[in-house]
Amino acid sequence: MSALSMQDGRAAGKRLRLPFDLKWLPRAIVLGLVAFAIFGPLANLLLWTVAERWYFPHTLPLEYGFSYWAKVFSPRGVAWESLFTSVFIALLAVIGSLALAIPAGYALGRLKLPARGLILLVFLIPQAFPNLPVYVNIARFFYDVGLNGTIAGVVLVHVTHGLVFAVWIATASFAAVDAELEEAARSMGAGPFRAFFDVTLPLALPGLMASGIFVFLESLDEFTGAYFVGAPDVQTLPLLLYTAGAGGNYQIASITALLLLVPSIFFMLVVERFLRADVLSRIGH
Predict the structure, then answer these.
(1) What is the C-alpha separation between 31 and 27, in angstroms, rounded?
(2) What is the Rg, in whole angstroms, of the alpha carbon atoms belonging to the chain?
(3) What values do phi and psi take at 234, rounded to 5?
(4) Are residues 129 and 256 located together in one domain of the fold?
(5) What letter does residue 210 receive in the DSSP assignment?
């Protein structure tokens, strides 16, 4: 009798078993929440760029159009000037950072220096402290020396801020180059500079380009330093974004944010192609 009961129970269990597996459901929920957290704000940003009228309690804009795009890029607007200023400052920051990072990265990556790890940690100091009090004091010092409100002052701030990316990635790039290749060039009669420019530098160039892209994007999106050191004489896109957002011009702020977002996504895809696994493995070592 008990055996029959067990068989009946198994048969009932088989009948109640669902025809599909629900093990994927928790993972799908987590992935859906992550996707919403990432793409939800982006979708909201895109809607604001084409929203003519949108107010609570409406979920979607009441009218769509491109009139705010015309206002942003009108001859009387400052978007083109701010974009040019931001790109110009970012390019100067890349040049200044690489001019310091290439010799520093070569020395840290190829030479046996004492306290090498401590030197690398020193470049993290600008990232280790809150930006606000640092830039307030920098603005006071720059005001005394005549750099406040100038492009040169903003470039110096961005170089200091982006130097950690440039030096650390440059160090890893030079460390990933096989030293025997440079030694072979030296043994064939090439001098130290010739061996560096003909052998070591071309092999480390992809990593150096990636570090330059990181500095460019960091400078392009940087707000705090540009605000305290450059404003109101130097107008960059992040400052325009802040001014529009603080004034309630969400359409103009969204269009400006989109202008900053597009190059960031493009260059990050480029960086992913340049940074090899052997370079990444040597960062911080």
Answers:
(1) 6
(2) 27
(3) -105, 115
(4) yes
(5) H
DSSP conformational letter for 129? S
Q: Which amino acid is at 182?
A: E
Decide if 5 is inside a domain.
no
In a shared domain, residues 218 and 268:
yes
Q: For the chain, what is the domain count?
A: 2
CATH number of the domain enclosing 98: 1.10.3720.10
Each residue's pLDDT tens digit, 211-254: 888 899 889 888 888 888 988 888 898 998 888 888 888 888 88
- Structural domain that includes position 34: 23-65
What does pTM read for this prediction? 0.78
Give the CA distances from residue 217 to residues 51, 118, 186, 244, 271, in Å, rounded to whole numbers and listed in that order.
28, 27, 37, 21, 11
Query: How many degrees, rounded to 5, is the angle at CA 46 between CA 77 and CA 65?
Result: 60
- Summarize pLDDT for 10-52 with one digit per residue, the tens: 555 555 455 556 677 788 888 888 888 877 888 888 888 888 8
41 and 149 fall within a common domain:
no
